[in-house]
Amino acid sequence: MKKARELLTLIRDMPGKKVVTLSILLDDETSDFVFDVSETGSVGYHRDHRKQLLTLLDYGIHNSGGLIIRQFTNLSYEGRSADGDVVRFPYKLIYAIFLGNGDYFPLSKSETEDVCCTDARTGHRLKREEGVIYRGWQTQRAAAVQ
Q1: From 68's CA, which of 12, 50, 82, 105 has a CA 20 to 30 Å away?
Q2: Beta bridge pairs of residue 87
């Protein structure tokens, strides 16, 4: 559970609101879990959400999984809503982390973009999402280690 706590602390310490999507293999099926992390580091909307996320991170670290972190910025761009109205959307920084072999492994910027822009079932390239900036996560982990 030490690595899961370390990883969750790093995520909670990142500035701004985050959405964390965790994919892990359960009973030969990939299961996705999504948690909001507030600007103050609170996980989810129920007191058990932090414990649930820690348990799932620990499972992924000791088995296999993937984690995507969407960090919302204060910068925005103009786009259209589903009903055609012009609205402003926040830019998001996207980070990806592989979980397995008892640890977590941050992906580089190019690996993150590949993971986010590839259909997991078909392997086909997907259109790059508007308003996202793919990032490597090494700088956050390196800062925590020092």
Answers
A1: 82
A2: 79
